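Thread: quick sanity check before group meeting

JM: Hey all, I'm pulling together slides for Thursday and realized we never actually wrote out the predicted structure for the chain we discussed last week. Dropping the sequence here so it's in one place. If anyone has concerns about the input, flag it before I start.
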Amino acid sequence: MSEVVSEGSIVLLVIDRKRRFLIRVERGRVLGTDKGYVNHEDLIGLEYGSIVKTSQGHRAIVLKPMPYDYIHGYRRVTQVIYPKDAAYMIYMSGIGPGSIVVEGGVGTGYLTTCLARVVGESGAVYGYEVREDFLNAAIENLALAGLLNRVKLKLKDVREGVDEEGVDAVFLDIPDPWNAIESLYKALKPSHPLLTYVPTINQVEKTVLALRRHGGYCDVRAAELMLREISVEEGATRPAQISVTHTGYVVYARKTLRK
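JM (edit): ok, ran it. Output follows.
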């Protein structure tokens, strides 16, 4: 069954590859672009997938946003975890509808958005952030995505301990994850995973060695994911000249019972 845009709906308006606009539809508002403007009211009642024209006559496609689209539409205050890394982390975590997870280092809230979608209405994401300006941006972004009700955000340092116990997975995006290993060990269910995201190989080394020394983690591993887009033109298909190569490293470990 087709879905129809209504007031309050989140819409991705795509004019071309570089002009992608994530908006919440409100009567009386206008989206202005260098290719012309679109009245929000003109979108109400349209099916997702419809095509409208800007004031300058350019085509704009009305799409329902996917998680990937939020990386472009959010107000960014930090570097975000890219979809290729977020997807791998979520897959490795084993979480699903009803899961309870802790996230340390919320930042812009992009990974938080992905986690909230996966745990569903019956699950919960407890997000810890030390900077209030980051927390406020994440609240704004999660509200735009309509997922704020699944997330409980706290202005608190995850390295000093978390309030939750028996959680299904922990996700970390902080500069020194090795300093949070013990506090998060107490929060995790036995056998469940801790996943950290770090941008440099030095942080990988410190994190992995700290996990090994701790004595309460097993299956410790580190990975880097590469994604290369392909430029497709008749008779000239080849790897894209510009691509995002290194983004970060993912360190994975599972909790064991200490003797």
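AS: nice. The chain has six helices and 15 strands. The first strand starts at residue 10 and ends at 16.
JM: adding both to the slides.
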